[in-house]
Design goal:
There is one protein chain. With 92 residues, the protein is mostly helical. The protein has one domain. Helix content is 88%, strand content 0%. It has three helices and no strands. α2 packs antiparallel against α3. The longest helix has 30 residues.
């Protein structure tokens, strides 16, 4: 099971980097255009990325052996973030 941890850390790191880049680019596009849809898109991806960051930190540093809490937090923030992203697709 110890060989799984570095793989999970690598994927979480890639998630944070790519999510951060998407959030940055969407924010930059919002500032350029002033579009509320792009603002919501940036917020949604920011929430999803923050959820991955918090869950990864809890899993690695704070919760020894109990991954259920980290998974629940990540799932909740992912759901909220995707809800905001979905809203951004319908915003004018």
């Amino acid at each position: 099971m110890s060989h799984v941890t570095p793989l999970v850390v690598a994927f979480k790191t890639l998630t944070l980097v790519m999510g951060g880049l998407i959030t940055y680019l969407a924010t930059k596009a919002y500032r350029r255009t002033g579009s509320p849809a792009l603002r919501a898109l940036a917020l949604g991806f920011g929430i999803v990325t923050t959820g991955a960051l918090i869950a990864g930190a809890l899993d690695q540093f704070l919760i020894a052996g109990d991954q259920t809490t980290a998974l629940a937090i990540e799932s909740a923030l992912t759901t909220v973030g995707f809800g905001v992203i979905l809203y951004s697709l319908y915003a004018e």
